[in-house]
Amino acid sequence: MKLTIPIITLVAARKLLTRIRFERLTLPVLNHVLVTIDNAGLTLAVTDLDHWLETRVQATIEPFAPGQFLIPAEAFKAATRGDRKSSAHFVFESTADGTTLTLTTSCGGMSVNTVYHPEPADEFPARPSVDGRIATLPKETFAALATVAVCASTDATRYVLNGVWFSTDNGGILIATDGRRLAGAPARFSGREFVLPSTAVNVLAHPDFLARDAAIQQPDDPEKSHVQFRSGPHTLIARLIEGNYPGYRHVIPGYLPESVTIPEPHRPAVISWLRTLRGRLNSVRLTWEKPGHLTLTHRDYDTIGATISVPVTIEGKPPVIAFDPGYLADALEIGATLRLVDSLNPGMATDSSGNFCLIMNQRVDPESVTEDAASKTPVPVSAIAA
User: Fold this and answer.
1) pTM given for the model
2) The CATH number of domain 2-123, selected from 3.40.50.12780, 2.40.37.10, 3.40.50.300, 3.10.150.10
3) 3-state secondary structure the chain
4) What is the pLDDT of residue 51?
5) Per-residue pLDDT band at 380 (split at 50, 70, 90)
């Protein structure tokens, strides 16, 4: 059996398939790409046992016959390094010792042949089946998914938080939290609620999923634990996170009287500066000494690191408040308007589309902040942008 696949096609397929980190798995058979040939053509698939990701690709198959083969991860990667305008040729031969794969690529105009000995295809895990109602998931839902995903937990001991909750509240909303911040975004979604693991969320952040509507299929049987997403030639099947996602409504302040909006021309510079801040006990404090301006003062333990000032639109009398700079940067990525109550309550960044990010505040000593502001000359944010 000989497969001929354009290099550019393999490069695009690998960018998608490596969102499942199959190359790092310790079980040898999982370090392979499954090649399936059927009447519809050729499909490439990978799995980590919790996720199944596949994509259909164009290929020349000689002779054409249904079947399955495995391509080792190193062979798949090597094939993508060939000359971009050329094709990779995979030749599978059955021997007494098993299957032999010969890869032929063109590198710098020279032909390169490499021989591999893949694992038996019949040892590759079976594709999970999902039988149930199919609904349309708008591409805007995938954009919302990418928006909130940054706030999902990575703590293995809080497994139920290691993903994004698809909730039917208010016609559909996506929620992600790590216990210190909580992001939400409206999303058109119907069906049963579920928690989608972060690995699956990362797959759905691929540009191909963001570019078009997709089909979502949930099992009719509530005991089944997989959900399927199909978008164009791509299919993702993910095992859902089991457990009760904590309620989020009670942590959101019902009264946020003060607001601060950073103008769009200045927001990228503020976010960029916040992401540069490092320290053992890191914080950035927000003060308002200059009318119409927000002053951000970085502190690491008891050392003042830097201070900047940015013109803002202020409603009310915002409190002196402190946040983790990385969390504040993530929140401002979601929304340019920061809504506050006082120095003892969390703040919330919002945008006009209904996206929000609630972030826990840090302890602040107003007197020390005043001293800091008096001892430092703020750097205008326009200087950072330059």
Assistant:
1) 0.88
2) 3.10.150.10
3) CEEEEEHHHHHHHHHHHCCCCHHHCCCHHHCEEEEEEECCEEEEEEECCCEEEEEEECCEEECCCCEEEEEEHHHHHHHCCCCCCCEEEEEEEEECCEEEEEEEEEECCEEEEEEECCCCHHHCCCCCCCCEEEEEECHHHHHHHHHHHHHCCCCHHHHHHCEEEEECHHHCEEEEECCCEEEEEECCCCCCCEEEEHHHHHHHCCHHHHCCCEEEEEECCCCCCEEEEEECCEEEEEECECCCCCCCHHHCCCCCCEEEECCCCCHHHHHHHHHHCCCCCEEEEEECCCCCEEEEEEEECCEEEEEEEEECEEECCCCCEEECHHHHHHHHHHCCEEEECCCCCCEEEECCCCCEEEECCECCCHHHHHHHHHHCCCEEHHHHHC
4) 97
5) low
